[in-house]
Amino acid sequence: MSTPDDLSQSRYSPVADSGHLLPNLILFGRLLRDIGLNVPAGAMLEAVIALDHIDIGHQQDFYHTLQTLLIHRTQDLSPFDEAFRMFWRIPRNTRSPQKGLAPPKGPPQTQGNTPSGQISGYPADTSTEPTLQGDPTTTLSYSTRRVSRTKDFATFSDAEMAEARDMMAALKWTLGMRLTRRWQTGRGTAIDLRRVVRPNLKFGAELITLPRRRRRWRMRPLVLLCDVSGSMERYSRMLLHFIHTLARGFEQAETFLFSTSLTRVTRQLAKRAVDDVVPTLPRHVTEWSGGTRIGEALKRFNVDWARRIMGHAPVVLLISDGWDRGDPAKLAAEMAHLQRRCYRLIWLNPLLGSPRYRPLTRGMQAALPWIDDFLPVHNLASLEALAAHLNDLPPQRTWRRQQGLQAMPRFTATPTQLPH
Amino acid sequence: MTEYGLPSSIDSLQELLDRELYVADRGLATSIYLALRLGRPLLLEGEAGVGKTEVAKVLASGLNTELIRLQCYEGLDVNHAVYEWNYTRQLLDIRLRESDNSADRSNLTTDLFSQDFLIKRPLLRALEAPGGRPPVLLIDELDRADEEFEGYLLELLSDYQITIPELGTISAVTPPIVVITSNRTRELHDALKRRCLYWWIGYPSFEKEHRIIREKIPEAPTRLAEQVTRFVQKLRTAELYKVSGISETLDWMAALVALDRQELDVETINETLGLILKTQEDLAAIGGQQAQTLFEQSQMPSESVQ
Predict the structure, then answer these.
(1) What interface predicted TM-score (ipTM) does this complex get?
(2) Predicted TM-score (pTM) above 0.80
(3) Angstroms from B34 CA to nearest CA on chain A
C-alpha cells in the first residue's frame, strides 16, 4: 500500500495504520453513501462480521466480500468499484489487467474545501449512474454549478448539457403513491384475524394482543410520450436526456417517441447511456424532422399499447410543443381517451417557458381540455418544479370534465393501417 | 388412451375437443397435447373472448375430471389461493377447551394448527386431489394478480408442491393439468413463462368462426350465420379500441336468433351493435353510415374466399 499522499487532508483518507480497519471501513461506508449508494447500517455491520471469516490480506477476497455485502443493484457496481479503488488505493491494472487500463498517474487534483457531495480524487462525473433513490437532497450538484438554471435548453452547449444532465439525475424523482389491494402487517386500522390466534395462545383464551394489518402503497407507473418532430428539434437532445433519466429511475416506466409514427423505446433506454441509445433507434424516429400528427400517434398508443401498459393507473407525461398537423378533433378524442385511462395526464410544453407564449395552436387548443397539468419544460428550473410537482401528487384523481357524444369524431376504417 | 385416460395422440385430443364443441387449430391442439404428455403448465394468451378459459373447461369435461378454478385479481394472496387457517373455529375451540377443565392444554398448538382447522383454497385442493385422474387447474387471468403472487406460483408449477409451515410440505400425488390464461394487460415474468408451454390464441379465421357459430348455435339460419361471420370479420379490420372476440359474436348471434331474424341488414346491425362493441367511442365510430359501408363491403363476393 502506498503512503498517504496529499489526499490525507480529505475526510475520506483511510487511516494508514494497521489495526485501524474498523474506522476505515466506516469511513468507506460513508463514502459510498455520499456518492449516492444505499448502504444500510446493517449491511456495514454484516461486513465487519464477515471480515472475520476471510483473510483480509487477500485483496481479491476483501474486495468481493465488501461488494457482495454492500451492493445490491447492478448499476451500483461501477461506482462501488471506483470508490473501492480510490479509497483502498488499488492500482487499476492489478484487478483488471485485461482491460489495459493505466494506473492513476500522479496524485489526483485536490480542492481545498471539498463540497459535501464531491469526493476529491473521485471522478465527479457519475452521469451514467443517476442517483435517484440514493440521494434525497436536490441540491447535490448546485455548489459546483456553472450552468444557469433559467437558461433555455435550446441554447445549451455540449458542456452545459453534460452538466445539466448530472443535475437532472441528482433531482429526486418520485411519483404519487397508489394504494394497492394487497395487505401487509403493520400499524393499521384493520385487525389481522389470521394472526390473532397464535400470539394469544400463551394467554390462554384471552385475546390480549391484536395484530394489525394495512394496505400496501406502491409508486405509480410512469408513461412517457415524447414528441421528436422537426419543431421540437431544438429541445430534442436535452429532452432525450431528460426522458432517459426518468425512464431509468423508475421501476415501471414505459417510453415512446413519436413524430408521424409512434415507436416504443423502453427496451433501448434500459441500456446505459443516451448516446449509445440514439444510434439503435430506427432512422425514421430520430431524424427529428417532418411534421407531427399527435392525434394519430396517440391513437396508435391507445389502440396498440394502452391496454397492456396502462394497467395500474399510471402518470402520463406527454412532451410536445403542440404543433399538430393532423385533425384537431381527432387529437381531442384521443386525449380524452388517454386521460380517462391514466391517473394524471401531464403535458410538458417547452414553449410554455416563454412569457409571450399562448397555447393558441389548433392542436394545443383541442388538447387543453383533457390535460390535468400543463407545465413548461425548457430549463432546469422548470424541471425542478416538475420534480416537486410529481413528488406532491395527491392520492386522488383531479376532477375531469365529462365527455360529450357530439365531441366524438368518426374514424375512417382503413384496414391497411392495422398492425395485425 | 394412456395413463389417467389422457389422449394418446394429437388426433385423439382433437376428437375430444370436437366432442366438446370446441373448435381448435392444429397448433393449439398440439400445445394442449404436449402440455398433457409432458406434464407442464400451458400458458394461453390472447385477447378477451377468444376462448382461453374454455380450453380448461372442455379439457375437464372431456377428460371427465374435476375443474378447479382460481380467478386472479389484484391483491390475491396465499391465504386466498392456497390455504387459510379457520381462525374463527380455532378461537371457538380454545373457548371450548377452557370450559372443559379436564382437557389437556399441553399440545394446544399442534391441535389448533392441524388438518381440521385448515381451509383448502384452489391451489392446495388441486394438489390434494385423490389419485387416479388428475384435476384440471385453471389459473384464470393471471395478469390481474400482482407480480408477488406470480413469484409464489413458481414453486408450485415446477415441483407441484406447497409448503405450509405448520404442516410441512404437501406434494401432489398426481400433478394437476395446469392451464394459465392471461389477457396480456401486463407482461408476465420470464421465469414463469419458462416453466410453461405457451400458445397465443388469435382471432379466428372466417371458416373457424363460422364453424364455431354453427356448432354452438345450431338453430341459427345458415344465411344469417354466414352474414354475421362476414360482418364481424370485417369489423375486426376497422380501427377500434376494443375488437370483439368470439364470445361477443356468439352473444350477437344468439340475440339475432332470439329476435327471429333470418337475414342481417343495416338497421338490425345498428339496433344490436351494443352486443359486439362495448366502447362508447367504437359505437360512435361504427354506428350509422359506417356500419352500412362495412356491411356492404363485408357481403361482397370477393371477400368470401379468405
Answers:
(1) 0.71
(2) no
(3) 27
